[in-house]
Amino acid sequence: MKAINPVMVSGGEVLPLIEGGKGVAVSTGLSSGSWAGAGGIGTFSGVNADSFRSDGTILPQTYHGRTRKDRHEELVRYAIDGGIAQAQIAHETRSGEGRLHVNILWEMGGAERVLHGIMEKCRGMVHGVTCGAGMPYRLAEIATGYGIHYYPIISSARAFRALWKRAYHKCSELLGGVVYEDPWLAGGHNGLSNSENPKSPEDPYPRVVALRKVMNEAGLDQVPIVMAGGVWWLNEWEDWLDNPEVGPVCFQFGTRPLLTHESPISDQWKARLLELGPGDILLHKFSPTGFYSSAVKNEFIDELVERSDHQIAFSPELVGAHDTIIGVGARKREVFVTAEDKARAEAWVASGRTDTLKTPDSTLIYVTPERAEEIRTDQISCMGCLSACGFSNWAENEKGSTGRKADPRSFCIQKTLQNIVHDGEVDEELMFAGHNAYRFAQDPWYKDGFIPSVKQLVERIKTGF
Questions:
Q1: Domain check: are 139 and 249 in the same one?
Q2: How far is CA 376 from CA 245, 338, 452, in A?
Q3: What is the spatial distance between Cα 7 and Cα 274, in angstroms, rounded to a whole number?
Q4: Which helix (H) or strand (E) holds 30?
Q5: How far is 146 from 104, CA to CA, in rounded Å?
Q6: Are residues 348 and 411 in the same domain?
Q7: Is residue 211 located within the same domain as residue 332?
Q8: Which of 60, 190, 349, 454 has its C-alpha lying 20 to 30 A from 16's C-alpha?
């Protein structure tokens, strides 16, 4: 195994090992500060992080506003306060070692306001900001205003070229690195484009080489690329080290730090990670962001799959094969479906899926009354956690709407992510994870349920395994 040599990142010499930022209170100040304290780059989440009461207990994020816009303002306040609290913890925990980054989801509600709010109070504590889930054109300008480095998260050379030409070339001095997040291997939201097949993974090496060529053309040959997604043992990536086609490189770990003493996830969640097998992670498109994302297959994911499977197309008028009338809703308003689909729908109704909900794609889904009520309640309770939400139709604009019908095939992402990180049942909530999570069960280091400290994990990674 080649030596893992220190690199200059965000103004400091550190190990080229990064803890990936995991949103909604998962990447905390304790976990990220501990990673930085071990000599690497820790990343705490600026996406609705936890803040605390005066007695040190976590402050629940409850909403009292009557309108979505009112609740959105509450959410932004929670996010800023939580980000500041976690930055302070991380800063104290790292004890002057390593570097500290904040992670922002560009498509989160109030993303720019949240980043400004955190940085105004955390000057000197935070050295960089990573940002993905969208095209964060203004990231460079904002980061430069606070004198910190910025790290866009992209999944293709084409995406970086667009960011560079439109905005980043104006603020190139503080471009600390470019995070290549593999869309087929990484956990959470992934940057698959419409031209890429979610079922046909591509080798990351040629995609990263293509990114390096674009960066070199822009004079960024000394700016590191951060490989994110699918990184487990560094000896599997040894040929990337000291490789001129790749150039300076760092490695990001998102899933492995979940299983540490400092990780805030529940013991139930940690135990579930230790028993996953190959194929237990699903790359799906149920997220209200509209992006693909990867999560553990459980009852939550199974229900979303079933919800979409109990779906038929309809037309308000008699068109082609849509020549059979069916009643929809409490008033049994007539729409047209195919004869075959009517038979399927009648069978679903007989099995207890008696409620129908319309989707933006002129389809009907059949669900139980209990599920229909939950969906409607969650849509009404929307607090604007995204800049645009497919599930509730909220948008961060003058109208407060995407202009499209709310999509009942999706879910309230804020609700489920808050639930799971605050001791919710892991089978009943969304559990993000990378596609290599099954390796916890195969890695002999975790035998008999061993859970390391962050420092132990970093030391282990440095050995190549």
A1: yes
A2: 52, 27, 42
A3: 32
A4: helix 29-37
A5: 15
A6: yes
A7: no
A8: 190
